[in-house]
Write a structure and sequence with these properties.
Blueprint: E1 2-9, H1 17-21, H2 26-29, H3 31-40, E2 46-49, H4 51-55, H5 57-68, E3 73-78, H6 88-93, H7 102-120, E4 126-129, H8 139-144, E5 149-150, E6 175-176, E7 191-192, E8 197-199, H9 205-212, H10 217-226, E9 232-234, H11 242-254, E10 259-265, H12 280-300, E11 304-305, H13 308-315
Parallel strand pairs: 1-2, 1-10, 1-11, 2-3, 3-4, 4-5, 5-7
Antiparallel strand pairs: 6-7, 8-9
Helix pairs in contact: 11-12
Length: 325
């Protein structure tokens, strides 16, 4: 089993329209402190980077410094609202990439790829879509630009009621993407590495799908969680308790899954950079959850830290050379 940590590396507080319109990058300038936490546990993060971050000279300098250490990867994080070509109206409406015309998506992907290449001297090969806004229609463009890993899909994730994605039926195990479905294996060379997420209790898959697509979706799920009946555990340290992350990781290990894929935003790692961790005490608790989870994953579960690209290399290796095939 491998341990992956994918960081959505973006401007401060992208949840807020005013912050999106007036970009600041204080969290990026603080990344070396976060990276030191990773290094203490041998974690090899993949920083997926937005266009504004790559275009900011001071942020680019930080990224080059991290890359020079040799213990991380710089990938691409696509924000449809702030990657050219885009408009001020896009910043306000905060669209999913899946809602863009395909030609605009392809132009944005080319601009994002070029900006990261210019910032760090190497083209990215790992990709994640902001707001999980990935679509199978994007696979061909990703392949053409040399991308090898995609990590936007989260099992049981459902925002179709907001014109967003429906990844409900996606598997936990990595798979090569199809050109016509984001949640079914296909024949492309882009490996989907889903974010680790699963229900807190064992239920038939059909019942899990009904839960994920429940009517009055957010309200229904809040009630079920409050009653202690059902909720999704994520490897997301601002969403899930340490106990839930450990329980999920243990469940995946028992099931023989090959990967733990943990996600958070770079802006969560400073005070006031996101809706989470608004005080020093909250940030300290967040960092403690991370450290204790990393210790559990790498010692109790013997998970091997890897970047996205390192994981893909091991996953597709011929039998006997580190493959899980």
């Amino acid at each position: 089993m491998h341990l992956l940590v994918g960081i959505d590396t973006e401007g401060d507080n992208q949840w807020d329209a005013a912050a999106r319109a007036n970009q600041r990058f204080e969290n990026i300038y603080a990344l070396p402190r976060l990276h030191a936490l990773f290094a203490r546990h041998g974690v090899r993060p993949t920083y997926v980077v937005t266009h504004p971050v790559a275009a900011d000279p001071r942020s680019a300098d930080v990224l080059r410094g991290l890359k020079a250490r040799g213990d991380c990867e710089i990938g691409a994080h696509h924000h449809a609202w702030e990657t050219p070509p885009c408009t001020p109206e896009d910043v306000k409406r905060h669209p999913y990439a899946s809602s863009l015309p395909l030609a605009q998506f392809e132009q944005q992907l080319a601009a994002l790829t070029a900006s990261i290449h210019a910032a760090v001297g190497e083209r990215p090969v790992s990709y994640r879509s902001g707001r999980f806004g990935f679509s199978a229609a994007h696979v061909a463009a990703l392949e053409r630009l040399g991308y090898q890993i995609e990590s936007s899909v989260a099992p049981l994730f459902y925002e179709a009621h907001k014109n967003g994605p429906d990844f409900v039926e996606a598997p936990l195990r990595p798979y090569f993407l199809a050109y016509d479905s984001a949640t079914s294996p296909g024949t492309s060379q882009v490996l989907e590495v889903p974010v680790s997420a699963a229900l807190n209790r064992q239920l038939p898959r059909r019942v899990q799908f009904l839960y994920a697509r429940a009517p009055r979706n957010y309200t229904t799920k809040r009630v079920l969680r409050k009653l202690g009946l059902a909720y999704v555990r994520w490897l997301r340290p601002s969403y899930s308790s340490l106990e839930d992350m450990i329980a999920l990781a243990s469940q995946l290990s028992r099931a023989g899954e090959p990967v733990l894929n943990l996600l958070f935003h770079s802006s969560e790692a400073i005070v006031g950079g996101s809706p989470y961790n608004r005080t020093e005490a909250e940030l300290s608790a967040f960092c403690d959850r991370l450290e204790r989870f990393f210790d559990f994953a790498t010692t109790t579960l013997d998970a091997r830290p890897a970047t996205f690209t390192e994981f893909r290399r091991a996953y597709v290796a011929p039998a006997g050379e580190g493959s899980w095939a």
